[in-house]
Amino acid sequence: MEHCIGFIGGGNMGRAIMSCLLKAELYQPHQVMVYDAYTPVMEKLEESLHIKSTMDVTKLVKEAEIIVLAVKPQVLPDVLAELKDKIDKNKLIISIAAGISIAQLEEMISPEHHIVRVMSNTPALVGAAMTGVCLNKNVDEKEKKAVLSIFKALGRAELITENLMDAVVGISGSSPAYVYMFINALADGAVLEGMSKNQAYIFAAQAVLGSAKMVLESGYHPGELIDMVCSPGGTTIQAVQVLEHNAFRSTVIEAVRAAATKNHDLGDQAENK
Ligand SMILES: NC(=O)C1=CN([C@@H]2O[C@H](COP(=O)(O)OP(=O)(O)OC[C@H]3O[C@@H](n4cnc5c(N)ncnc54)[C@H](OP(=O)(O)O)[C@@H]3O)[C@@H](O)[C@H]2O)C=CC1
Ligand SMILES: O=C(O)[C@@H]1CCC=N1
């Protein structure tokens, strides 16, 4: 790709996306530009990724053909209020902000702009993100392909309908945090049995990685995979009984719903700003 991609916000997610695009050689460093309110963030990105930074956000929206909005949802309305009249209608605008709908983005920019809303996750840092993508009516086939190739460079990406965006936050945007909690707790269990914490992290993380690969690659559904592990009268069914007794599955379902609900609320908060 010969055009320039510009990031407004170079924090956790902005940085993860930029580094994946460079690693996949979808863009060369001179084609990537960042503007961040916090200057040391830009200096660090210039140093580590050799990309261009600018303290002039207007310059970024002029030079970049694709503009990625990678700031927190709470500041997005102010950022767009300043920029809306400076972004050409032929630019492709990608928002990664939680909660902000396409209709709200169209209201903050304009309904004529080409706008994409995505929800990705931090495993993008290791090329293993899961990203849900939805497009407004102005996005054409070529742009759709470009967006999917950008987010496939981060891991997996799928087009979804926007009504599923809250679910996507609950199941994959926020879920790395709950999975790390699970890994940490698994490791603590092994520490209780005498294993060192560092070794326990490796055993726990590899077990989670392997189990995830089984779901993605074996063709069995999770229920069948559970049965394959639970030998009659064996060790696993003892552990499963403890998890069921403590409402493990129901707690996870409620956690997904809580994240989804908050995603919806973030949109409402932006509306009332
Ligand atoms: N973290 C995650 O797991 C995920 C986050 N997201 C979404 O990604 C977006 C970014 O999140 P994340 O990367 O975690 O956030 P970060 O806080 O790590 O990054 C945002 C960056 O934007 C900077 N910033 C603040 N205000 C402005 C401004 N007006 N103009 C330019 N830059 C500004 C921040 O600076 P300062 O710190 O000084 O405020 C910070 O460096 C959010 O909308 C979030 O909802 C989506 C999926 C997963
Ligand atoms: O916690 C958040 O709001 C962001 C969005 C999804 C993951 N992190």
UniProtKB/TrEMBL annotation:
Catalytic activity: L-proline + NADP(+) = (S)-1-pyrroline-5-carboxylate + NADPH + 2 H(+); L-proline + NAD(+) = (S)-1-pyrroline-5-carboxylate + NADH + 2 H(+)
Domain Pyrroline-5-carboxylate reductase catalytic N-terminal per the UniProt entry, residue ranges: 5-99
Binding site residues for NADP(+): 8-13, 70-73
Protein's name in the database: Pyrroline-5-carboxylate reductase
Pathway: Amino-acid biosynthesis; L-proline biosynthesis; L-proline from L-glutamate 5-semialdehyde: step 1/1
An MF annotation (GO) of this entry: pyrroline-5-carboxylate reductase activity
Coiled-coil zones: none
Sequence ranges assigned to domain Pyrroline-5-carboxylate reductase dimerisation in this UniProt record: 162-264
InterPro entries, per the entry: 6-PGluconate_DH-like_C_sf, NAD(P)-bd_dom_sf, P5C_Rdtase_cat_N, P5CR-like_CS, P5CR_dimer, Pyrroline-COOH_reductase
A UniProt-annotated Pfam family: P5CR_dimer
Subcellular location(s) per record: Cytoplasm
Family, similarity comment: Belongs to the pyrroline-5-carboxylate reductase family.
GO biological process annotation, one example: L-proline biosynthetic process
Function text: Catalyzes the reduction of 1-pyrroline-5-carboxylate (PCA) to L-proline.
Matching Gene3D superfamilies: NAD(P)-binding Rossmann-like Domain, ProC C-terminal domain-like
GO CC annotation: cytoplasm
Enzyme class: oxidoreductase
Protein species of origin: Hominifimenecus microfluidus
Taxonomic path: Bacteria, Bacillati, Bacillota, Clostridia, Lachnospirales
Keyword terms: Amino-acid biosynthesis, Cytoplasm, NADP, Oxidoreductase, Proline biosynthesis
UniProt keyword Chaperone, yes or no: no
PANTHER family assigned: PYRROLINE-5-CARBOXYLATE REDUCTASE (PTHR11645), PYRROLINE-5-CARBOXYLATE REDUCTASE 3 (PTHR11645:SF0)
Enzyme Commission number(s) of this protein: 1.5.1.2
Superkingdom, taxonomy of origin: Bacteria
